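User: What would this chain look like folded?
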Amino acid sequence: MNDPVWHAEATNSFPALSIGDRFNHRGLGDVAWYTHPQSGQCFRIKDIEHIFWTIEGSHIGHKLMVALELGNIED
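Assistant: Here's the prediction, encoded as structure tokens.
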């Protein structure tokens, strides 16, 4: 699935995300776009894509697309 399902805005920077990082899904309870991990499973970041665009006379926009995969905690 490639549909955007969640967004966040902040006045300061988020910590860096890296491929392979474990992604904690528990804060996304209202967005049921995924099958909950079973015991011994977790989400990991599979890919990261940065998208930039210019809004004339205003600012440069930035979107971060994060692809997740479900796998074993030990992997």
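Residues 22-72 form one domain. If you want, I can go into more detail on any region.
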